[in-house]
Amino acid sequence: MSILLQNDTILHIGIDDTDSPKGMCTTFLSYKIVKFLERQKIEFVDFPSLIRFNPNIPWRTRGNGAVRLTIRTKNPKKIKNKITQFVTSYSDTKNGANPGLVFFQNKQIPVSFNKFSKLALCKLISRKHAKQFVSENNIESFYLGNGQGLVGAIGAIGYKFFDHTFELLCYRKKSQFGKKRRISKSSVKNMQSTTFPETFSSYDKESDRVLITPHGPDPVFYGIRGETIKAVVRASTLVNSDEKLDGYMIFKSNQGTGDHLNNELQVDELKPFNSGFLIGEVCNKPVIERGGHVFFSIKVKDRKIRCAVYKPTKITNVAQNLILGDKIHIGGGIRKASKNHGRILNVEFLRILRLTKNHLLVNPTCKNCNKKMKSKGYKQGFCCVKCGNRSTSKSTLEIPRKIQCKLYLPSVSAHRHLTRPYQRIKKRNRDAKFNTSIPWVHIF
Ligand SMILES: [Zn+2]
Fold first, then answer.
1. How many Å lie between the centroid of ligand 1 and the Cα of residue 315?
2. How far is the CA of 358 from the centre of ligand 1 (A)?
3. What's the rounded Cα separation, in Å, for the pair 193 and 229?
4. Which contiguous run of DSSP H or E holds residue 151?
């Protein structure tokens, strides 16, 4: 398998939207495809990649994740036919999946793919746009349903990592699909405390919740996110469950990189479902609305943008303590306008860059008696009732601020797949060399 001829082809495979809320999972289909590929005369040239795209688009499948596989093969035609069959047979089209599959045969990926991928990360891309891209560039592709999956399939091939993490996804046996997942909570807690920060977002101490198990009927038993292959494999040996599992596969991923919030939103053309960041000054006093959500506005280039911090993020107390003039850097997605409100930025992180002094005007204090003076009436000045001492104006009192110039993130339970957690703020993993010394796919 390792001695291959020069006329072998590098084949990039992009797959998206094979799942529905009722079942399947694009990563599991990829696991099945990889199991098939392992029996063929091919060579893997990179880890499988799990790319999360814009989490703020309305019709995303759970997590909006697409997969890329890159292999070297002598017989691309056969491989492509077989993979197309896999996608046809296993996509959950009955329950609304709109699978897309894209092949690209060349080592170098064209810039047009990279550009498309960047857009899919932060914007809403129509399937029409994807179909146009496919036909204009003469790209081999296949889709079922309405073809929405082409967006992620093209995007997955074009995604350029500037940082990455890994996720070890452990799959159930078919007979267990849909059944309750029984996992030892104490083993997950122990796994996190033993391997953190080499793994992340496994368990939420605050709410005593296990975060590695999904809740739906999909084939994933658990997923462990971490910085290296070694770390996620080690962590998986620390997690206990009585269920007999099928196997695992490790994906290189943009999860935990915050990549969807790296671009600055343009206030002149804020479109619904765009993701990115803004820097501005608070220009409206925060208000708490029904449900405990906090709303305020910031001013960016003379435009006023309404922002929302939702209760489950557990940072509403931070938003509530903002005052006029505070300079902040916020990231999130634009919510579509409705009958009751205009467009709103749903906040996914809040970094305070500058705090304004909170001055309160109060009646002056008498220097002789150390007592508060009384007002003599509108514009009449102030007077001490004890000694008659007079003053013409109020004095200012500085109220200490309850928030600091720093980054505030939602509670880990409210994180998106893409959310960059605190311990990864300064972390950047340079492109990991493809290394098979530790198996990245393993059947139990
Ligand atoms: Zn006095």
1. 45
2. 28
3. 18
4. helix 149-158
Residue appearing with tokens 């996509």: 91
Tokens of 407: 């980054």
Q: CB count, 10 Å around CB of 386? A: 12
Measuring CA to CA, which residue among 414, 274, 260 is closest to residue 344?
Answer: 274
Using CB atoms within 10 A of its CB, is residue 47 exposed (0-12), middle (13-18) or buried (19+)?
buried
Distance from the Cα of residue 177 to its chain's centroid: 26
How much distance in Å is there from the Cα of 376 to the middle of ligand 1? Answer: 14
Among 44, 85, 50, 86, residue whose Cα is nearest residue 68: 50
Please tell me the distance between residue 359's alpha carbon and the centre of ligand 1 in angstroms: 24
Q: What gap in Å lies between CA 294 and CA 287, rounded to an integer? A: 6
Tokens 């995007």 appear where?
A: 155
Q: Where are the alpha helices (DSSP H) in 97-148?
A: 111-122, 127-136
Other Cβ atoms less than 10 A from the Cβ of 60: the count is 17
Closest CA to 278 of 290, 269, 288: 269
Buried b (16+ CB within 10 A) or exposed e, 302-335: eeebbbbbbeebbbbebbbbbbeebbbebbbbbb
Residues 6+ apart with CB under 8 A from 112: 133, 137, 158
The β-bridge partners of 307 are: 296, 345
Here the tokens at position 122 are 């932060």
Whether the CB-CB separation of 413 and 207 falls below 8 Å is answered with yes
What is the chain's alpha carbon radius of gyration, rounded to the nearest angstrom? 27
Cα 160–263–302 angle (5° rounding)?
170
pLDDT digit string (tens) for 126-176? 999 999 999 999 999 999 999 999 999 999 999 999 999 999 999 999 999
pLDDT of residue 6: 57
CA of 382 to the centre of ligand 1 (A): 11
Pairing status of strand 303-309 against strand 344-354: parallel
Ligand 1 centre to CA of 379 (Å) is: 20
pLDDT for res 21: 79
For residue 374, the tally of other CB atoms under 10 A from its CB is 12
Two tokens, residue 392: 């013409």
> Model-level pTM greater than 0.90?
yes
* CA 99–ligand 1 middle distance (angstroms): 81
What gap in Å lies between CA 368 and CA 355, rounded to an integer? 35
CA 365 to centroid of ligand 1, rounded, Å = 8
Q: How far is the CA of 397 from the centre of ligand 1 (A)?
A: 19
Paired with 264 in beta bridges are 277
| pLDDT tens, position by position, 346-398 | 999 999 999 999 999 999 999 999 999 999 888 889 999 999 999 998 999 99
